[in-house]
TrEMBL record:
<dbReference type="GO" id="GO:0005506">
    <property type="term" value="F:iron ion binding"/>
</dbReference>
<protein>
    <recommendedName>
        <fullName>tRNA N6-adenosine threonylcarbamoyltransferase</fullName>
        <ecNumber>2.3.1.234</ecNumber>
    </recommendedName>
</protein>
<feature type="binding site">
    <location>
        <position position="308"/>
    </location>
    <ligand>
        <name>Fe cation</name>
    </ligand>
</feature>
<feature type="binding site">
    <location>
        <position position="167"/>
    </location>
    <ligand>
        <name>substrate</name>
    </ligand>
</feature>
<dbReference type="InterPro" id="IPR000905">
    <property type="entry name" value="Gcp-like_dom"/>
</dbReference>
<keyword id="KW-0479">Metal-binding</keyword>
<dbReference type="InterPro" id="IPR043129">
    <property type="entry name" value="ATPase_NBD"/>
</dbReference>
<dbReference type="GO" id="GO:0005737">
    <property type="term" value="C:cytoplasm"/>
</dbReference>
<feature type="domain" description="Gcp-like">
    <location>
        <begin position="23"/>
        <end position="314"/>
    </location>
</feature>
<feature type="binding site">
    <location>
        <position position="115"/>
    </location>
    <ligand>
        <name>Fe cation</name>
    </ligand>
</feature>
<dbReference type="GO" id="GO:0061711">
    <property type="term" value="F:tRNA N(6)-L-threonylcarbamoyladenine synthase activity"/>
</dbReference>
<feature type="binding site">
    <location>
        <begin position="134"/>
        <end position="138"/>
    </location>
    <ligand>
        <name>substrate</name>
    </ligand>
</feature>
<dbReference type="InterPro" id="IPR022450">
    <property type="entry name" value="TsaD"/>
</dbReference>
<dbReference type="GO" id="GO:0002949">
    <property type="term" value="P:tRNA threonylcarbamoyladenosine modification"/>
</dbReference>
<dbReference type="InterPro" id="IPR017860">
    <property type="entry name" value="Peptidase_M22_CS"/>
</dbReference>
<keyword id="KW-0808">Transferase</keyword>
<comment type="function">
    <text>Required for the formation of a threonylcarbamoyl group on adenosine at position 37 (t(6)A37) in tRNAs that read codons beginning with adenine. Is involved in the transfer of the threonylcarbamoyl moiety of threonylcarbamoyl-AMP (TC-AMP) to the N6 group of A37, together with TsaE and TsaB. TsaD likely plays a direct catalytic role in this reaction.</text>
</comment>
Amino acid sequence: MLILGIETSCDETAAAVVRSGREILSDVVASQIAVHSPYGGVVPELASRKHVEAILPVIREALDRAGCCAGDLDAVAVTQGPGLVGALLVGLSAAKGLAYALDKPLLAVNHLEGHMEAAFLDKERPEEPFICLVVSGGHTSLYLVTPDGSSRCVGSTRDDAAGEAYDKVAKLLGLGYPGGVIIDRLARRGNPAAFDFPRSRLEKGSLDFSFSGIKTAVAYFVKRYGPPVPEGKGETPYRLEDLAASFQEAVVDVLVEKTLEAAERYRVRHVATAGGVAANSRLRERLEEECAYRRLQLHVPSIRHCTDNAVMIAAAAYRLWLREGFTPDPLDLDAVSRM
Ligand code: KG4
Ligand code: ZN
């Protein structure tokens, strides 16, 4: 079962050919970071235009690297949502065109189900039930995946996603975009206990998150002590590494705490994480320690497959096929920004 996956929900144009949900024959990602960097965040209109330019070369490269031609494919899988609607439409239109021209089934995939699939690309999927923390630039939610294969959201952010908080704090500090990986790198040389930022725990028993408070706390910190001074232009009155590490520790504390609480409440033995922020070194380290201590089995994607990619879309489509049988989606399918 050879599936071409296509992903254009945000700022990566991606295509991949995956055999039977597992064997990655190609994995192509064209990043738009350089385009959005000057704005400190994704500009939706620019994202759509760049997807239009990149989509056909990226698909062609995915087929070439896989050593196959379009006619060898058994199906075309594509992200239907959630995401930026103009960006989604580019991938969806390309996928529909291909499916129609090849007379092959079109398979629509939920981007978040794709992210979750990434945790099991190179190892056996555990028996359900399990808890998955999906944590990215657009989403921060806890899912309970049940034996019938469906996922129920048991907690979600009420304001910013964790990745969004990373990106906004990095912008505030003039560090560049996307902020997560920059803060992660700085934090490795910092003291996480240097500054005490708030951990938003909401009401007792809630598995929801809130990250807008910590972003505001960093804004107040910068207002009080001043923004980082560029190199050669004086001295910053605090260690930027300490600020990064303290901010990160507050975010990771809450993510880990709620994930473990969910695992305990739903009595699962397996915990997974996925999405761009799952690439964070401190989050991975803390989850490993805490899960080992509680004898929970932890499943994390490779760093490459944490951020947006098309392998996860092809793999999720294959699972959907195993679970629900092969029902092609109609060619008048629309993109859905919120799913
Ligand atoms: O999954 P993704 O590529 O796109 C969405 O679906 O949102 O996630 C991108 C997010 C960005 O906010 C980025 O800053 C964050 O993931 N991110 C990280 C790291 N790498 C990427 N956040 C923290 N630490 C990282 N190492
Ligand atoms: Zn994503």
